[in-house]
Amino acid sequence: MPFKLRLSASEWRFALTSFATKVSLFWLSELVICQWDQERWACNVVGKGFIPCLITFALMDLLVIPQIRRLRNR
């Protein structure tokens, strides 16, 4: 049986808000913080690249976090 992404409306809102927040913080870190001080820990994460971070954010927000929340609410 193929995997189907089934999220309720509230789960979609939570996932998209969380995803947008993480992407915004990524760009803020890259454009502001890392320009001033390259030795901060956030710059190590940002230095890995946008695409790997974007994929990780999407997997967490769309697949992992909703499943954890459902298990916790049982």
Features of this protein?
elongated; mainly alpha
Quick structural overview:
The chain has three helices and no strands. With 74 residues, it is mostly helical.
Estimated structural class: mainly alpha
Q: Looking at the structure, what is the overall shape? A: elongated
Number of helices: 3
Low-confidence stretches: none
Overall pLDDT, averaged? 77
- Largest beta sheet, briefly? none
Order of helices and strands: HHH
What helical percentage do the residues reach?
Answer: over 70%
Would you count the extended β strands for me?
A: 0
Radius of gyration of CA atoms, rounded to a whole number: 15 Å
Describe the structure.
It is a single chain. This protein has 74 residues and is mostly helical. Helix content is 78%, strand content 0%. The chain has helices spanning 9-36, 41-46, 50-73. Helix 1 (9-36) packs antiparallel against helix 3 (50-73). It is elongated, with a radius of gyration of 15 Å. The mean pLDDT is 77.
SSE map:
Elements: H1 9-36, H2 41-46, H3 50-73
Helix pairs in contact: 1-3
